[in-house]
Amino acid sequence: MKFRYATAAALCAVLIGGAQAQDVKLSISTGGTGGVWYPMGGAMANVLSKHMKSASATAEVTGGSVDNVKLLATNKTELAFSMVDTAWEGANALGKFKDKVPMRTIAVVHPLVMHVVTVEGRGIDKIADLKGKRVSTGSPGSGTEVMALRILEAYGINAEKDLQRQRLSVAEAANAVKDRKLDAFMHAAGVPLPAVTDLAATPGTKLKLIDHADSIEPMKTKYGPIYAAMAIAPKSYPGQERENKAASVWGVLYVHEKMPEALAYEIVRTLFEKQPEIVLGHREAANMTLANQQIGASPIAWHPGALKYFKEKGVTPR
After folding, report:
1. What is the pLDDT of residues 287-304, one digit of tens each?
2. CB within 8 A of 100, min separation 6: which ones?
3. CATH superfamily placement of domain 8-109+251-312
4. What is the C-alpha to C-alpha distance for residues 270 and 48, in angstroms, rounded to an integer?
């Protein structure tokens, strides 16, 4: 794999912080502009550009997890956000992946909670009510789409036959609900999800989040112990009065297995030591803690550079 630094000397300059020119270019593949990973990835890019003296990092808008893992496989990105279920499929040539992706974990970032979103007046109070409705299951190339289809399957709903299915980004879906062109949408992300906050704050709109925690056990039986229950607390969004019982999965940051150990180490060190600055980009980054590296399981092997940093901190990642 070719990383975007000019010379080996330039990489050394990054590690000692001595170079003035920005020789290392790092692309961070995130998600849509209405989601969590784009602002979080932007904050990470700022931190890496600021504190790795010879590095220049950029957050890229993408379709989400599937696209990100494919970009990693084809050497078109250096760092990629992904939900662990999608990453597992990529690493094992399952689902949408024809070949195994040689990827490694560098950080467990935060839990992503599936949002099943509608508003008052659309006749939707439970998952079964989605049948026959106009529903977005996430954009093509997103981890949301993978998880959404599995949740619907757990309730006996065939997305192709039982829904008027659309495949929109979260920002497009929220706007379509506002415009009464869509009845509901599904999106997995950290809380708060900007597009949902915007929808909930729209005058004359009453947000409804649909419970779906009953899907977890069927999904675990079929797809393994990847998913867990999580609640979206009341008041997480404007006008949200009750707890929403939802399914969740961890979001993880991955790199190619051939990334140099020294570079991976420096990226991980910088991200964790400057984590408070990343939280300013999105509060879900507060979950990217040393403790959560031991709790938030990643099914993909860890990169040696990340393991070196965590060993220095007395942490054994899971």
Report:
1. 999 999 988 667 899 999
2. 90, 91, 92, 93
3. Periplasmic binding protein-like II (3.40.190.10)
4. 7
Retrieve residue 177's tokens. Answer: 């609900």
Q: Which amino acid is at 9?
A: A
Return the amino acid letter for 301.
A
Low-confidence ranges of the chain (pLDDT < 50): 1-2, 5-9, 12, 14, 16-21
Give the pLDDT score at 295.
Answer: 80
- The rounded distance, in Å, linking the Cα atoms of 134 and 137 is 10
Look-up of token digits 């935060």: 110
d(CA 83, CA 171) in angstroms, rounded, equals: 19
Q: CA 60, CA 239: separation in Å to the nearest integer?
A: 32
Instruction: Classify 36 as helix, strand or coil.
Output: coil
Answer yes or no: are the C-beta atoms of 133 and 163 closer than 8 Å: yes
Length of the chain: 318
Find residue 249's DSSP bridge partners.
112
Tell me how far apart the alpha carbons of residues 155 and 301 are, in angstroms, rounded to a whole number.
32
* 3-state DSSP assignment of residue 253: strand
pTM above 0.70, yes or no: yes
8-109+251-312 and 112-249 agree in CATH topology: yes
Angle between helices 37-51 and 261-273 (to 10 degrees): 110
CATH topology of domain 112-249: D-Maltodextrin-Binding Protein; domain 2 (3.40.190)
